[in-house]
Write a structure and sequence with these properties.
This protein is α/β, with parallel strands linked by helices. It contains six helices and 13 strands. The strands form three sheets. Strands 1, 4, 5, 6, 7, 8, 9, 10 and 11 form a nine-stranded mixed beta sheet that branches. The protein has a two-stranded antiparallel sheet with strand order 2-3. Strands 12-13 form a two-stranded antiparallel sheet. Strand 6 and strand 7 form a beta hairpin. Helix 1 runs antiparallel to helix 2 and helix 2 crosses helix 3. It binds 1-O-pyrophosphono-5-O-phosphono-alpha-D-ribofuranose and uracil. The site of uracil has 9 residues, from helix 6.
Length: about 220
């Protein structure tokens, strides 16, 4: 299933060579747990740099060794990073390297093995979600069910300004996500070919949560 992303103005498929290089190693079955975790963090930094490009700035006065000058700093707008457990956890440290003061909420979902539908088991957010720029994090966008349910939960909790960052997406997941949330910017590291009959992304990287936490041998 090919996808024409030009139809979707809010879908950003990233193409930096460093990002592509790191995603290739992430996919490799011979990449072990430690390297896999480091790669997810580095990829989150590269994607986060792009996804945070519209952060608001304000001018402050500083003194250089030469003179006083007005220069931009990121303004105090409240940020919140929200990983979808478990695999989204792997992206949090990368985003926090970029904005250490951000708050972190958590959404716990797992896919039912038979139906592939997300099952919720946890939800905890910082206060004042309606005032925050919320960045939802999950390396995998497969059917889109987990991301779509997460956005619904965030909206129910008051979040108004949501951006979704994933590493690998299936065309089906992008289509479903955009249909449900056309207004939400989506940042994607790679778009793969399709889903298989277990709703795994092909070629993908396998089960991302298991690979980050080492719960299954490669
Ligand atoms: C994976 C992944 C996403 C979801 C994507 O989580 O991290 O959350 O699947 O699939 P979808 O787009 O079809 O919903 P999983 O359900 O394997 O949970 P886990 O990370 O806790 O193992
Ligand atoms: N979740 C994963 O971790 N991998 C996939 O390919 C699909 C869903």
């Amino acid at each position: 299933m090919a996808i024409d992303v030009s139809k979707y103005p809010n879908v950003n498929i990233l193409s930096h060579p460093l990002l592509k290089h790191k995603i290739t190693h992430l996919r490799d079955i011979n990449t072990g747990t430690n390297e896999f975790r480091n790669l997810v963090k580095e990829i989150a930094i590269l994607e986060g740099y792009e996804a945070l490009k519209n952060l608001h700035t304000e001018l402050i006065e500083i003194q250089t060794p030469v003179e006083k000058t007005m220069q931009p700093v990121v303004s105090g707008k409240k940020l919140c990073f929200v990983p979808i457990l478990r695999a989204g956890l792997g992206m949090v440290d990368g985003l926090l390297e970029l904005v250490p003061s951000a708050k972190v909420g958590h959404i716990g979902l797992y896919r039912d093995e038979k139906t592939h539908l997300p099952q919720q088991y946890y939800f905890k957010m910082p206060n004042n979600m309606e005032e925050r720029d919320v960045y939802l994090l999950d390396p995998m966008l497969a059917t889109g069910g987990s991301a779509i349910d997460s956005v619904s939960l965030l909206k129910k909790h008051g979040a108004k300004n949501i951006t979704f960052i994933c590493i690998i997406a299936a065309p089906e997941g992008i289509e479903n996500f955009v249909k449900a949330n056309p207004e939400i910017p989506l940042y994607v590291g790679a778009v793969d070919r399709c889903l298989n009959d277990k709703a795994y992304i092909c070629p993908g990287l396998g089960d991302c949560g298991d690979r980050i936490f080492g719960t299954v041998e490669n």
